[in-house]
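so ive been stuck on this for like two days lol. basically i have the seq below and the ligand is flavin-adenine dinucleotide, smiles is in there too. i just want the complex predicted, nothing fancy, no docking runs or whatever. if the output looks off dont worry ill sanity check it later, just need somthing to start from for the group meeting slides
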Amino acid sequence: MAHDADILIVGGGLNGPCLALALSQAGFSTVVLDALSTENRGADAFDGRSYALALASTRLLAALDLWDDLVAQAQPILEITASDGRAGEGPSPFFLHFDHAEIEEGPMGHMIEDRYLRQALLAAMEADPRITHRPGARATAQDTATGASVTLEDGTTLSGRLLVGADGRQSGTAARAGIKRTGWEYGQTALVCAIAHEKPHNGIAHQFFMPPGPLAILPLPGNRSSIVWSETHAAAAKLTAMDDAGYLDHLRPRFGDFLGEIRLEGRRFSYPLGLSLANRFVAPHLALVGDAAHGVHPIAGQGLNLGFRDVAALAEVLTDARRRGEDFAALDVLERYQSWRRFDTAALAAATDAFNRLFSNDNPVLRGARDLGLGVVNALPGIRRRFIREAAGLAGDLPRLLQGRPL
Amino acid sequence: MNTATQTVDAGEIAKFEAMAAEWWDPHGKFKPLHMLNPTRLDYITAQIAAEFGRDLKDASPFAGLRLLDIGCGGGLLSEPMARLGADVVGADAAERNIPVARVHAEQSGLEIDYRFTTAEALAEAGEQFDVVLNMEVVEHVADPQGYLTACQQLLKPGGLMICSTINRNPKSFAMAIVGAEYVMRWLPKGTHEWQKFITPDELFALIANAGLTPVDRKGFVFNPITWTWSLSDRDLSVNYVTASTKPA
Ligand SMILES: Cc1cc2nc3c(=O)[nH]c(=O)nc-3n(C[C@H](O)[C@H](O)[C@H](O)COP(=O)(O)OP(=O)(O)OC[C@H]3O[C@@H](n4cnc5c(N)ncnc54)[C@H](O)[C@@H]3O)c2cc1C
């Protein structure tokens, strides 16, 4: 039986291409399908979206030979502060402060703009002879009974040994395989934009816990920062309808004037916040990665980092299976990936959820408890280091690629 | 090649397919073997690669190696070896396993020469191999010394034998017989006879007597919390595996 590739990947967002590149290093051939055209995914201009990449994620990009070029466009995160605040008031007296000097590995992470990351992934896919990238190809049907096949909108059928769903939170690949999802809405929307500001940010990331939801200010190269600002749906809808000047007038008082004058850079985005976990990450001849497996609340900035962990873990499980001579698409092989990743994901989803519920609240008792909690964490260096290592993605049983080792 | 599958009727083939599905169901009757398999394969592949200077990162690292899998059962080891490029003969003394293994190899698109025969008969016929896999067999044979001598004859000079079995001590009795056969019902009762179990030192002596040079031994250790197996340099108290070579 001649296959189009060893592995068919539906979804050419961020995790799909990353997985294809990792698998290619181990000798697997892949087809990467995406419903959107390349231009619709990788525009040149800065559009305001960016990601906080944990140290472990940058190691994955280094193992894929992408990081040397990307690092020049990335902003290292040197410190993180987290504090409780209310619009118009300064931060509360107790606040958390994490400094990368407390762990040996260097910066806890980097901020990278979406455009650079996407373009690097797209270019690397094009240059790789083991990857066939098919933009503008929407998967509409699939069969994973004995091998893997995908049927496209135009009726073409592609075949392989394994099908991977990297098609985001609304994963059709998971739905077609009968995999149900668990999740809920938060009644909140994240407003995302980038700002240019007068004063330098010194590589410091700030997280303010406001009653309607958290506000994150994350440093970008130059005097620019990325803003992720959570509001109730109703408030967010009003803000979205405003012009840029009105939007900025509402943003300014939320974090005071420590960065001086601010103005918008790029577009404004809004995302309804919710949690969406696939009940299973694998089925015979099928695996899910990234948001298709778990869309978590972006409060902890961990969505993509979790996805990169999936990528590294799945690539390692498949590679090891193949080097042992096992059928890499067999369910018992795929279950090794699932058991490796599921605990991590569920734990982070639960922690992020609890964190958000605790902090998106103006109850004075909770507020007092929060201040106390943050103060306690701050006072204990051991716990602090744990938090930092967790934020840097260095906790847990790390796949080889996240340790900076080859497959 | 597939004379056996061609001469049996359709009803028989359906039965073999059902039995093959049973052998290969990771959560079925042979679950303990499936759980142990990745660890066994890690050991086997690493030893073969080291002995014959092969790189497991290559697409077909075992190309050109002739390998015998004694007690092949449904083909849980024969298939991975064939996938890695070895020229595989799978032998089983239980006749019913042969058509089952053949049916599954065909479903997997692999060519494997499965035979209803014994190590002794193959040795008598003058067959020779680069690698002999002798996994979980020696504790079942009537004359271990005679059997291991046949294995030695089956090896080409410079060839490699991997042999795994179960140690004989109170712990292995508790784990393999009470645990696996009676409590967990992983294996049919009576699968093992404890007095036939062999200690690592006894096995090394039998192997040396057969004219092979023992080169390595490791334990297969089960972790009841994570339900996974791993290799151990020190703990050979229950399941263990050895590698030995035939002088060139
Ligand atoms: C407000 C916000 C802020 C965030 N901030 C961070 C952060 O700071 N750090 C971080 O690590 N993460 C962050 N995340 C999370 C991160 O954006 C996601 O985890 C990541 O983009 C998921 O990538 P993915 O490749 O799994 O899925 P997606 O990016 O959703 O890609 C899925 C792709 O599949 C394609 N597709 C869908 N259906 C089909 C089909 N039928 N056929 C073919 N193609 C199909 C789509 O076109 C799309 O390109 C944030 C998320 C939000 C909402």
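The CA atoms of residues 85 and 281 of chain A lie 38 Å apart. Chain A touches chain B through 15 residues (CB under 8 Å).
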